[in-house]
Amino acid sequence: SRAIAGYAAQLSLGTSVIENLTIPQFDPGDQRHRNMARIAGDITDRGDEPTSAELADLNKFAQEVVSEHGV
């Protein structure tokens, strides 16, 4: 997606690296997905760097979702 490609560009990763990752599709019925979206929106709205707590929460939710999908 464009968002992932933009993120990859910021990290100086080739988009081919990102394209080979299996990332589960956003599921609005999954509270963890909604939590990640809310945290990301808060960071974006604030226009600042994420806090340590926000990063820890994002990592926790992402690991749970990815491991649940066998990735």
Report on this structure:
This protein is an all-alpha fold and 71 residues long. The protein has 4 helices and no strands. It is globular. 0% of the residues are buried.
Itemize the secondary structure elements and their pairings.
Layout: H1 2-10, H2 15-19, H3 31-46, H4 52-68
SS class: mainly alpha
Strand content: under 5%
Query: Could you spell the SSE succession in H and E letters?
Result: HHHH
Low confidence ranges: none
Estimate the helix proportion, in percent: 55-70%
Number of DSSP helices? 4
Biggest sheet character:
none
Question: How many β-strands, per DSSP?
Answer: 0
User: In one word, what is the shape?
Assistant: globular
Radius of gyration: 13 Å
Beginning-to-end CA distance, first to last residue: 18 Å
- What do the pLDDT scores average to? 81
